[in-house]
């Protein structure tokens, strides 16, 4: 058989390869991007994911608050805590990283993200003392003006790291023995209060250099052995609201140098108490500021140890009177958050990891999202 046809075929193939090479040189491969571009009018819904099966890889998922659709994700390292700036333009994550993923040298960081693109725009190294805790409000908070960031520490000795976000450096570490939880003043940027195990509130005022200028404590207002108080505490008009495991509501004015507990009421009637109705969840209550109401996840047959049980109902409590004005069936809510607009309540279903949205004030279910993450615990709708 003649070799000429084979040579002609090889020559044709070579020309085809050379020709394709010219086109390949003009090909622009797709490049991975380190962020997104979220619509300016999209209400953000942040959902924590504790990633219980692989704790060093926590996440903060970002959803479109209008429909619950997935919009982006931010890394949160090991046991990260997150919060947003008062204007909603920044997302702050305080996380722990290890040089060998699950072991090695520890490094605690505050990471700063642009809320519109989810791109990291800065970070600050902080002392390796950050509380290794499940996602929870009041473990990471900003000052009312957004200048400072407060980080809860536990080694297990408790203290608070103060980060100057303008200078991007640690300003101070404030010792807080026996106290846990951060409640910033709504009038003074360098003033915070803390919840203490002896049943009191402690308030610390710092000077511009981060030194403690004044400390004050409130009278005892709860008994941690009889009726403990949840650490999360929403604030409005300079007042913080604390809820106990048995359904008592304490209102405290934390604006001044001395904490003042102004009012204590029970929103669980005697008849409800006999049925064992109690608050439950990881973020069991939230404020509807537009209507001066508290929304609380409640479960029946409650007893010692059920304070994290998912809600069977969501109770609406009038803050002016302390009385329940409505009760709504709940789909196992473990975290509640009212949007800053006051139009929507978001409830995290602890059984399915779905977010259930309710239109306010009617408490009418408007949508149910797809499942979010593996072990979501916290919802924030600034």
TrEMBL record:
The keyword Oxidoreductase applies. Pfam families: Me-amine-dh_H. Its main location: periplasm. It comes from Pseudoduganella rivuli. InterPro entries: Host-pathogen_enzymatic-act (IPR051200), Metamine_DH_Hvc (IPR009451), Quino_amine_DH_bsu (IPR011044), WD40/YVTN_repeat-like_dom_sf (IPR015943). GO terms for molecular function: aliphatic amine dehydrogenase activity. Belongs to the aromatic amine dehydrogenase heavy chain family. One of its GO terms (cellular component) is periplasmic space. Gene3D superfamilies: YVTN repeat-like/Quinoprotein amine dehydrogenase. It is found in: Periplasm. Residues 1-24 form the signal peptide. This is Amine dehydrogenase. Keywords: Disulfide bond, Electron transport, Oxidoreductase, Periplasm, Signal, Transport. Disulfide bonds join 179-196.
């Amino acid at each position: 058989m003649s070799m000429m046809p084979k040579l002609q075929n090889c020559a044709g193939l070579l020309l085809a390869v050379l020709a394709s090479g010219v086109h390949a040189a003009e090909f622009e491969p797709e490049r991975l991007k380190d962020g997104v571009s979220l619509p300016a009018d999209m209400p953000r819904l942040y959902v924590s994911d504790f990633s219980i099966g692989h704790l060093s890889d926590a996440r903060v998922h970002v959803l479109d608050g209008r429909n619950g659709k997935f919009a982006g994700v931010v890394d949160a390292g090991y046991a990260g805590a997150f919060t947003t700036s008062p204007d909603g333009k920044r997302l702050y994550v305080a996380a722990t990283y290890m040089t060998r993923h699950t072991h090695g040298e520890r490094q605690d960081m505050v990471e700063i993200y642009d809320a519109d693109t989810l791109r990291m725009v800065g970070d600050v190294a902080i002392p390796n003392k950050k509380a290794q805790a499940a996602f929870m409000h009041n473990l990471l908070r900003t000052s009312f003006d957004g200048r400072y960031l407060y980080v809860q520490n536990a080694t297990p000795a408790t203290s608070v790291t103060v980060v100057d976000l303008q200078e991007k450096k640690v300003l101070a570490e404030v010792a807080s023995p026996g106290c846990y939880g951060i409640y910033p003043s709504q009038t003074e940027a360098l003033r915070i209060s803390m919840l203490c195990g002896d049943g009191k509130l402690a308030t610390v005022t710092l000077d511009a250099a981060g030194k403690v200028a004044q400390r004050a404590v409130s009278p005892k207002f709860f008994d941690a052995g009889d009726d403990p108080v949840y650490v999360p505490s929403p604030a409005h008009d300079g007042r913080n609201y604390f809820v106990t495991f048995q359904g008592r509501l304490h209102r405290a004015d934390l604006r001044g140098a001395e904490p003042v507990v102004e009012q204590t009421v029970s929103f669980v009637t005697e008849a409800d108490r006999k049925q064992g109705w109690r608050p439950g969840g990881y973020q069991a209550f939230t404020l509807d500021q537009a209507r001066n109401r508290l929304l609380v996840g409640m479960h029946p047959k409650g007893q010692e140890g059920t304070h994290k049980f998912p809600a069977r109902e969501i109770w609406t409590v009038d803050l002016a009177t302390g009385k329940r004005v409505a009760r709504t069936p709940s789909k196992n809510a473990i975290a509640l958050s009212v949007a800053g607009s006051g139009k929507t309540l978001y409830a995290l279903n602890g059984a399915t990891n779905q977010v259930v949205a309710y239109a306010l004030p009617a408490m009418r279910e408007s949508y149910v999202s797809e499942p979010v993450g593996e072990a979501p615990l916290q919802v924030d709708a600034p």
